[in-house]
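Lab notebook: predicted structure, single chain.

Context: the supervisor wants predicted structures on file for every construct in the current expression panel, including those that have not yet been purified. This is the next one on the list. No modifications to the sequence; it matches the entry in the shared construct table.
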Amino acid sequence: MLRLNVVLAAALALTACATADTAPAPTPPPVVHPTTGERNPAVQVDALVFLPPPPEANGALELAERAIVRGPWSAERRQQALEDNAIDPFAAFDSVLGPNFTAANFPATFAVLDRAGRAAGFAGDPVKFRYERARPFLSDSAITPCIPDEPRLRASFSYPSGHAALGFAWALVLAELVPARADAIIERGRDFTWSRVVCGVHYPSDVEAGRTVAAAAIARIHADPDFQRELAAARAELAAAYGE
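Prediction complete. Output recorded below exactly as produced.
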């Protein structure tokens, strides 16, 4: 009997070890970058606090804005609006900073513009989902968007413009980094954001709200030590090229 008990105990011990060895490991929590602006409340702003509601749907102000969106716009300006649809700060600002202004040539600048664009571009989302403003081309058949009219575009909301927010955020950061060209950079940022109106996918008030979100987000993200380090690296990189 004693021998049987020993054998049973050994068998149970082996079974326990096998169970421990084959048990699935617990699923780790999702990894969230601690300093990515759109995921880090410490460096994010609450646009619901400072943005007013959009103009009333089909009210006098929105109808006036819709007339602006209809244009007319030249074929050249529509083409520029199509090009400005790209999420590419280097393509957006090489007209000011020259053909050598590319991500390959300025990797540190790419890093800081990517962080700034994400922080600003996502900051208006809570406002979008509160008001759910329809895009102008959905309310006026005379407006044809310059980009493909896809279900994803139709399902998204107009106010504020996230595209305008990220584009103006790029402009604000570049104006800080290359101060000798700040005026031209800001003007190009304004023109880039206005392309959303020309394209028929945003109202002027959407774009203006996007610029406000950009200004708030960029002011706030300056408190992020990682952003400060990336900004310093980009400043040194651009100084070597533009003599700042």
